[in-house]
Amino acid sequence: MPVSNPYSIPCFEDFIDEARKRFEAEKNAKNKAYAFILSRGLLSEFTEYSRAYSIDNQSFESRLEMILKNC
């Protein structure tokens, strides 16, 4: 992680900057995925998938199994 002082000791602002960068990267990846879904006319399929694989309705084990199957 880049630091903002000459002592190479991260400060609070450095952690905030790193969190912001990671948030932006994840947001951009999700926006690309949503754009792909919409550009391919897959909104109804995505809606069905989202309802079927809702995190609220699943145990940790079943979510992990789904992720591993799709790797």
Protein model, in words:
The structure is a single chain. With 71 residues, this protein is mostly helical. The chain has two domains: 10-40; 42-71. It has helices at 12-39, 43-52, 60-69. The radius of gyration is 18 Å and the shape is elongated. The two termini are 29 Å apart.
What is the fold's blueprint, element by element?
Elements: H1 12-39, H2 43-52, H3 60-69
Which key terms come to mind for this protein?
single chain; 71 residues; mainly alpha; 2 domains; 3 helices; elongated
The amount of helix comes to: 55-70%
Note the main sheet.
none
Class per helix and strand makeup: mainly alpha
E-strand count: 0
Q: Which spans of ≥5 residues are poorly predicted at pLDDT below 50?
A: none
Q: How many helices?
A: 3
Mean pLDDT: 83
**Could you say how many structural domains there are in total?**
2
SSE pattern, N- to C-terminal: HHH
Radius of gyration: 18 Å
Query: So what's the overall shape?
Result: elongated
Question: Approximately what portion of the residues adopt beta-strand conformation?
Answer: under 5%
Gap between N and C termini: 29 Å
